[in-house]
Structures are given as structure tokens and as C-alpha cells.
Amino acid sequence: MKSIPILYSFLKLLQDLIGEKSNLLDPEAITASQELDDALNVYNKLISQVEK
Question: Most C-beta atoms within 10 A of its C-beta, which of 1, 10, 19, 52?
Fold first, then answer.
């Protein structure tokens, strides 16, 4: 499944961004985290539909 490497890449980018920021409450870190959360929710919803 191609979505798995994409999610891992996005997670790595988020980890890199958080590593660059001294504060997890930095607006960019919060936005990236929310976007990753949204992407994971969509992924999980799709997976649950395929498994039915």
C-alpha cells in the first residue's frame, strides 16, 4: 500500500520540525501535528472500510 510510506514520510517531517522547535506549542508544530492526526484518521477510516 503506497499510503504507508507517505504517512511515515509525513511523520518523519513532523519529527524533524519538532526537533527544530524548542517548544511543542510552536504554531508550526501544532499545525503539523493536527494535519498528521487528520491524515491518520482518514487512513484508519479507509482501512476499516476495506476490512469489512
Answer: 10
d(CA 44, CA 38): 10
Whole-prediction pTM = 0.66
Do the Cβ atoms of 24 and 18 come closer than 8 Å?
A: yes
d(CA 41, CA 33): 12
CB contact at 8 A, 2 and 10 = no
Q: Nine-digit cell at 9? A: 514520510
Give the pLDDT means over successive 10-residue stretches in the chain (52 positions).
71 82 84 84 86 73
How far apart are the C-alpha atoms of 9 and 25, rounded to whole Å? 22
